[in-house]
Design the sequence.
């Protein structure tokens, strides 16, 4: 059985390729970026030292780079690709009738 999500509409976004924006969604800060024309959403803070990920950047391989220690995370799944063993929380993004939505795991929303 797959994960179940609570979906939340995002405001209209004007987002350049590899730009990282911060949005407040359901009281939670998240980062949103565009890579190869697709939108991705991930945690606002680095899982290692809590640095704001919007102050980092997205590289040519689709990794978001933490601004503090330069740890690298795959924007598709959050896996740490620089070997430190951390995982960046990612969130699914869907477009419905021209409106973007981000999904939060229902188990997280009930905490």
Sequence:
């Amino acid at each position: 059985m797959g994960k179940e999500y609570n979906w939340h509409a995002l405001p209209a976004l004007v987002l350049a390729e590899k730009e990282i924006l911060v949005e407040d969604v359901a009281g939670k800060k998240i980062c949103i970026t565009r890579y190869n024309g697709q939108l991705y959403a991930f945690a606002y803070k680095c899982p290692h030292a809590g640095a704001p990920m919007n102050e980092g950047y997205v590289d040519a391989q689709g990794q978001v780079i933490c601004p503090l220690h330069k740890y690298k995370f795959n924007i598709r799944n959050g896996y740490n690709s620089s070997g430190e063993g951390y995982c960046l929380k990612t969130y699914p993004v869907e477009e419905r009738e021209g409106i973007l939505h981000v999904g939060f795991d229902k188990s997280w929303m009930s905490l």
